[in-house]
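User: I'm new to structure prediction. If I give you an amino acid sequence, what do you actually give back? Let's try with this one:
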Amino acid sequence: MDFSFTEEQDMLRISARDFLTKECPKAKVRDMDKDERGYDPQIWRSMAELGWMGLVFPEQYGGMGASFSDLIILMEEMGRNILPGPFFSTIALCALPLLEYGSSEQKTRFLPQIAAGEAIWTFALGESSGRYEASEVKLNAVLKGTDYILQGHKLFVTDAHVADYILVMGRIGRGESSEEGITLFVVDARGPNLKTEVIPTIGGDRQFKVSFDGVAVPKDSILGKIGKGWDIVNFILQRAAVLKCAEMCGACQAVLDMTGAYAKDRIQFGRPIGSFQAIQHKLTDMLVDVEGVQYLLYQAAWGISVGLPSPWQISAAKAKANEAYQRICIEALAAHGAIGYTMDHDLGLYYRRVKAAQFAAGDTDLHRETIAIEMGL
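Assistant: Good question. You get back a string of structure tokens that encode the predicted 3D arrangement of the chain. For your 377 residues, that looks like this:
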């Protein structure tokens, strides 16, 4: 297990950091918080031109043939800069399962569009219970003629207002287990009988309730096998958890860096506050947390990259990131004092996103349960 970066990966990190620093400064982040779209189409197109959308796609689909670990590096830099936009929902939640489970026709049709930045996707998973369990899937799909008719609603669908397609988890009947009957449908987000309603959140992330009132979906729009979609859902949640962890890791590092710089520059009682033991201990605790998240992240990502994904390693990384991100931000706020609590300070931009990141791809309790199961408990 080697966590060192190749020369190409170092170049990817440097180029991503330079691009995001120049094209998406914190002033742009604040502007996007107020923009209904939640992202900048020009930056989106530029990211596509850099090859970011198709980073892990084979060249035949307009991609660069990079590894999952390369995608981790990119997500870390996006988290460091808190890049707003539908990259996570499009790539982590939809493009990866399309690449893994899509038919040749689906890959040929959809992946080049995503790689070129011409299509935004999102995943509709959660319902009223808020739990990621097959037994909680109520959205119903009934075959009528050549189409499946979807009836029901989904909650907390990220970026649904700008999506061109929605990957929807529905149910076609029930079997001996709750997993049987789960099916994933590719739905045209601009089609009839589909309605989106905004769900306001403190993090400013774009979350929506999506209602399906007799939405017709052709048979060839099913991803994977009919009634066997729960395996795909697990695939999505595992990859998404690691990629969200990478985003959070980058954010944690950014908060640590800005707090360390502030502790060196801020003079109180005639000397830098970083010379006081109380501040030193906060920063050292933050560093230990960052290092812990990075190790667990790279360990989980390595397993996926070599085709040996470990559920417990994935859950350990996400559970650690969930707690560390909040703890690091709270320690940073204490070190900065009153100014850190204002939205004019960059620290506030990170802290307001903590809770949304914690729930994305599974909260801490869900991942602890996964670890316990893997331990045989």
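You can read the tokens as a compact description of the fold. Here is one thing that stands out. The longest strand covers residues 147-158.
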